[in-house]
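Example 9 (inverse folding). The structure is encoded as follows.
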């Protein structure tokens, strides 16, 4: 199995949208896919318990049948705020050790591709000492960066790349996800990022009305998917 940690340039970069698109594309090529969102805030009460819309999207995108919601999203928090604050308000604690235990359980499965999606950006705190970056470091998995294409994204992307490298992790690739349909000089920004990010551009996803991740999946070439799954 190949496992990747998916992070973004900020909260609204489109991590779930891009992850679902990639999982859908990999599934269409015959690969077994699995997803994991260790902690999610902004969950809603349902008869089955707290449920997060992002986690439900990931669940819909995978083709691994024998998976329940708690395997996808083991820690669901109701307040729609930073996870460590939501956890404190909910009387729960977050730690790298606990989250890594959940993730490693899924990493033992026989699927071909597992995407572990973070919350917010690279340095989102889990507690006063640890961040989600520490989780990725503990799991020792390569990273896929989702760049939310909008004004200011170049700085956000390059700072995130720098942080990933400083933490000793491999940036396997990045995805340009256009979240601003009216972004000026989109191609020029894309060119600059492609020149300055030391990892391959896996997909360039244009703004898609309705967040249709099935449609976005087609933007991942077969070569890009095979590169991720076959990467040493």
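The amino acid assigned to each position is listed next.
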């Amino acid at each position: 199995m190949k496992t990747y940690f998916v992070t973004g340039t900020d909260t609204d970069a489109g991590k779930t949208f891009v992850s679902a698109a990639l999982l859908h594309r990999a599934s269409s090529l015959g690969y077994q896919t699995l997803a994991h969102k260790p902690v999610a805030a902004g969950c809603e009460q349902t008869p089955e318990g707290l449920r997060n819309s992002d986690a439900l999207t990931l669940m819909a995108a995978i083709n691994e049948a024998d998976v329940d919601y708690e395997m996808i999203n083991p820690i669901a928090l109701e307040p729609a705020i930073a996870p460590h604050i939501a956890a404190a308000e909910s009387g729960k604690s977050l730690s790298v050790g606990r989250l890594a235990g959940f993730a490693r359980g899924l990493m033992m499965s026989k699927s071909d591709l597992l995407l572990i999606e973070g919350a917010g950006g690279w340095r989102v705190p889990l507690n006063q000492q640890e961040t989600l970056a520490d989780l990725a470091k503990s799991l020792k998995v390569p990273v896929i960066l989702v760049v939310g294409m909008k004004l200011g994204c170049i700085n956000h992307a390059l700072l995130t790349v720098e942080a990933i490298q400083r933490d000793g992790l491999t940036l396997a690739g990045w995805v340009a996800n256009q979240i601003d349909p009216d972004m000026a000089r989109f191609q020029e920004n894309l060119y600059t990022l492609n020149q300055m990010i030391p990892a391959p551009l896996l997909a360039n996803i244009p703004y898609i009305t309705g967040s249709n991740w099935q449609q976005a999946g087609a933007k991942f070439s077969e070569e890009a998917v095979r590169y991720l799954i076959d990467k040493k």
